Amino acid sequence: MYVFVLDQNLKPLDPCHPARARELLKADRAAVFRRYPFTIVLKDRTIENSVVHPHRIKIDPGSKTTGIAVVQEPIGRVTTAIEVTHRGQVIRDALLSRRVLRRGRRNRKTRYRQPRFLNRTRKKGWLPPSLESRIANIMTWVQRIRKFCPVIAISQELVRFDTSALVNPEISGIDYQRGELFGFEVKEYLLAKWGRKCVYCDALNLPLEVEHIVAKSRGGTNRVSNLTLACRPCNQGKGNQLIEQFITGKPDLLKRILAQAKTPLKHAAAVNATRWELFRRLQQTGLPIETGSGGLTKFNRKTKGIEKSHWADAACVGTSTPQQLLIKPIKPLLVVSIGHGRRQRCGTDRYGFPIRHAQRAKFFMGFGTGDILKANIPAGKYAGIYIGRVAIRFKPSFKLTTGGKSFDVHPKYLQVIHKADGFAVL
């Protein structure tokens, strides 16, 4: 991806090619401002004597991974590609574990206490922490990009599937039902629902066809609850047979298909639960917001011959997508949300008895757990230069993890490269 550039007053300029950034750093005309995303600050340039082009942030929200792309508007060049992996499931599991522990303690200590949950209120727009973290991650990176790049607008994939464009007998208007994006909406929904493989033989990386579970000649409909995906041999082999006849002798497969046909998408539900709140928060940035559907995103990506990925989908969001996208030299920045530590002060053994207590302070001698540091160790078993993450102790002996190994190092040999910010870069 391109390198973000700031002028000497820390105002964003156009991103530059990594080779150009190396030349500026080597000539001492620039200095490193931030490691992730890599940003340089020019020592001899201001925004007044520079030509700055408008850029657009494009977002493809996902339940597990969100794709973000920055596109230079006039020429359609993708300058930045980021894939953010969320930790919603980790948060949910941690909350469930905490609930079990608290419930067990209440049952042991206050067995006859009256229930008090009816006096709890939640503010309007409240979301569970597992969903709130997804929105917070996206907004964090949107704000960061705005600091380092001249952004004038934002595009968001607001709905994963345009359900009104799916086959629905209650919707009138054959022109709308059979519009240009009709097939893309249905196919994209089915690909996500059935795992992008043949439902009968589990074949992968083959062209898949839309298959009617109950054939239309036997009274089946075009509702998405009656549709699945199959490879051509399975589709032709089934014909208009009943599904019970076609996969006879496989009761487990039959049960799974019939159950999955009526099961809503778990991850799509998570995206749908957060999409409007994310839209409202993006509006608070004051920038123009464009929205589009997942079917439109796939249509744009297919017509431009771009391979599927989270950041590529983000670059194709909305009607603002140019006719040609310049994406050749781009490699995405892979970001994983790791959180900001724990509030738990007491550590326990496997039986639940306390064995240690953590300090309340999060910093010691200017360092914090999770910081990326450069260690220059002059002598000893681990003599050399290392770069890794540190876990602080409240004594001058920190634990540095780098290259799959960990060892103790004195803080006087450490230099901060990147402060912990709740994310890790792969």
Topology overview:
Elements: E1 3-6, E2 12-16, H1 18-26, E3 30-34, E4 39-42, E5 55-60, E6 65-72, E7 77-85, H2 88-109, H3 129-148, E8 151-159, H4 174-177, H5 182-193, E9 208-212, E10 227-231, H6 232-238, H7 243-246, H8 251-261, H9 266-283, E11 289-293, H10 294-303, H11 310-315, E12 333-337, E13 346-348, E14 354-357, E15 363-364, E16 367-368, E17 372-377, E18 384-391, E19 398-402, E20 405-409, E21 414-418, E22 423-425
Parallel strand pairs: 1-4, 5-8, 7-12, 8-11
Antiparallel strand pairs: 1-2, 3-4, 5-6, 6-7, 9-10, 12-22, 13-14, 15-16, 17-18, 17-21, 18-19, 19-20
Helix pairs in contact: 2-3, 3-9, 5-10
Short description:
The protein has 426 residues and is of the alpha+beta class. 29% of the residues lie in helices and 27% in strands.
How much beta, percentage-wise? 25-35%
Main pleated sheet = 7 strands, mixed
CATH topological fold name of one domain: SH3 type barrels
Helical element count? 11
Q: What CATH first level of one domain would be assigned? A: Mainly Beta
Low-confidence stretches: 164-181
Arrangement of strands in the largest sheet: 11-8-5-6-7-12-22
Into which percent range does the helicity of residues fall?
Answer: 25-40%
Radius of gyration: 26 Å
DSSP, total strands: 22
Write the CATH architecture name of one domain. Roll
Shape: globular
- What is the overall pLDDT average? 86
Secondary structure class reads alpha+beta
Termini, distance in Å? 14 Å
